[in-house]
Amino acid sequence: MNSLHASIPSPPPEWASFTLGPFTIRTYALCILAGIVLATIWTSRRLTKRGAEPGVVLDVILWAVPLGIIFARAYHVFTHPADYFYPGADLWKTLFIWEGGNAIFGALIGGAVGAYIGCRISGLRFWSFADALAPAMLLAQAAGRLGNYFNHELFGLPTNLPWGLEIESSNPAFPAGLPDGTLFQPLFLYEIIWNVIGIFLLLWIERRFRLRWGKLFAVYLIWYGLGRSYLESIRIDPSEYSFLGIPFNVWAAFAAVVLGVVIFIVQTRRHPGLEPSVYRPGREWHKPDAEVDSDDTDSDDEDQGDEAVDTEQPGAAKATSTIGTAS
């Protein structure tokens, strides 16, 4: 698109979707789904290593994912009303999540509500689940940002950098007055890189300081909020609301950082030690004992002598004692 500078080409428009029989599959949706699957598998493995029942994460995800998606869309529509509410607008498009427009801060709010409900039902500690999810959340977000690339969205201010992103001038978000061939900051790529770095940082911090009780999730909020505060400040389509000249989403990123700091301080004071279990008291899952062969069971009873006798059977102890005396 721009012959004077090196650049990152946007994928052909036909890559945004494909047909499978009577269905239209959106690449954006596949990226989001891939992120959810990867995060679920990784979170499950992390919880299981800490004593949780294998698969219990599904009890939480079934609540967290739907509410996260609903809140993500609602948050985006709320902060970009002009895109959906105007004379002659098709209000049904406010529900078309597959076309893009799902705010991560809304997803965090809705996901947290859903995770809390799921944890209450399953007996998991909410903060234990949050800590297990923290690095997996960054992985899911990195995968989801690829969907923005295929949708030709989430780009920033014009740039002459060699990694500038090519965006067609027919794109609804293309700023009026700029010449065709203008390159833009690839915010989706910046966030992918930031998230991947964050994964390694969180894993190192967790291993080094053995953070529990929600403190690792607090670090996630701080790290992600710092990155988003900058990316939101250079977006070409920031939220339509602002305060003190700062876009609403930048304030939301600042709020994530502050919330992370508060959670870390409060949980450090309340819980200086390690968690006794990922389950709440009285809801622990006990790993079933390994199955034992019947021959092994018989030999164990013989070796144990009097201790192997069922004391609830009248006369059993007396009979055993007589046999023992005779021998």
From TrEMBL:
Start and end residues of each stretch annotated as Disordered: 280-327
UniProt keywords, alphabetically: Cell membrane, Glycosyltransferase, Lipoprotein, Membrane, Transferase, Transmembrane, Transmembrane helix
Protein residues bound to a 1,2-diacyl-sn-glycero-3-phospho-(1'-sn-glycerol): R145
Entry annotated with the keyword Cytoplasm: no
Biased composition (Basic and acidic residues): 281-290
Enzyme Commission number(s) of this protein: 2.5.1.145
Pathway assignment: Protein modification; lipoprotein biosynthesis (diacylglyceryl transfer)
NCBIfam families membership: lgt
Cited PANTHER family: PHOSPHATIDYLGLYCEROL--PROLIPOPROTEIN DIACYLGLYCERYL TRANSFERASE, PROLIPOPROTEIN DIACYLGLYCERYL TRANSFERASE
Name of the featured protein: Phosphatidylglycerol--prolipoprotein diacylglyceryl transferase
Lineage: Bacteria, Bacillati, Actinomycetota, Actinomycetes, Micrococcales
